[in-house]
Design brief:
By secondary structure, the protein is α/β, with parallel strands linked by helices. Helix content is 40%, strand content 22%.
Length: 282
């Protein structure tokens, strides 16, 4: 497939496009990457250099791609960290242009807003833009548990809560939802859940919790889930493959004691995961 990926970029490490592009390429897909920011490293270090781009620059780059006459060959658009609300507007404009050229193209929005323990970590205006504009425009969204609660205004403590919140999101537009880093009352202390819901139903994968805290894993799993879901049309299979690959990636990272995910060193996990997790219908 040809995927237009509009996300942040870092020179050192792997978050945003620097986390999402290579796994998709390793699976054989062409990725047209547009960066919303260019930083030296991810902001988790507390210090970084670089700049946030603006909406007109994103539009200019999409114009250039359109001038090549290839938008009709774009199979999907993936967006992540946006940097500013005007970049979000430019992304939705790009989605509209791709869909006009190829009505079968899918839009996957990773609604990057915040996380449990950290709260909201994006600029003012972006959470509301995600909730009110980006999510309704998307075919697939990949929130974590914090973002699921923010987008729906619901508290999620049980699996039933999570399913109800997902259904509320689906009623607003996206047919498919992947919830990452899900912890409910029935999640064992040594495990973590992922929940995916689509036209065929809801499915859960439970993996062991790893003693690693790194940035960029959410960007990777969103990209993996998107291309597997778009390529197979099977939400359960996409969940299994994305979860298995990401677990393998994080396992390798934990074993190495690395602060950055080992996207390149663990690349075989994207193609042939060391351990396959089987989803259960819930």
């Amino acid at each position: 497939m040809n995927i237009l990926s509009i996300q942040s970029w870092v020179a050192y490490g792997h978050v945003g496009n620097a986390s999402a592009v290579f796994p998709m390429q390793r699976l054989g897909h062409e990725v047209w990457a547009i960066h919303t920011v260019q930083f030296s490293n991810h902001t988790g270090y507390g210090a970084w250099r670089g700049r946030v781009y603006d909406g007109p620059m994103i539009e200019e780059l999409v114009d250039g791609i359109a001038e090549r006459g290839v938008l009709g060959r774009c199979d999907g658009v993936l967006s992540g960290y946006m940097g500013s609300a005007d970049i979000g507007t430019a992304i939705l404009d790009a989605v509209a242009r791709v869909r006009a050229a190829n009505p079968k193209a899918l839009y996957c929005c990773d609604p990057v807003i915040g996380d449990v323990g950290r709260g909201v970590f994006v600029r003012p205006g972006i959470p509301e833009f995600m909730r009110d504009a980006a999510v309704p425009a998307a075919d697939i969204i990949t929130p974590n548990q914090f973002e699921l609660e923010y987008l729906t205004g619901r508290t999620v403590t049980t699996l039933a809560d999570a399913k109800a919140a997902v259904a509320a999101l689906q009623a607003r537009g996206p047919k498919t939802v992947l919830v990452t880093s899900l912890l409910t009352e029935d999640t064992p202390a040594d495990s973590i859940d992922l929940l995916a819901s689509g036209p065929a139903g809801a499915f859960r994968v439970r993996t062991p919790k790893l003693g690693v805290s790194v940035n960029g894993a959410g960007d990777a799993i969103a990209a993996l889930f998107f291309v597997h879901a778009a390529g197979t049309g099977d939400v359960a299979k996409a969940l299994s493959l994305a979860a298995s690959s990401t677990f393998g990636l994080l396992t390798r990272t934990a074993e190495a004691g690395s602060r950055e995910i080992l996207t390149v060193a663990a690349q075989d996990e994207f193609v042939a995961p060391s351990r396959i997790f089987t989803p259960e219908a819930v």
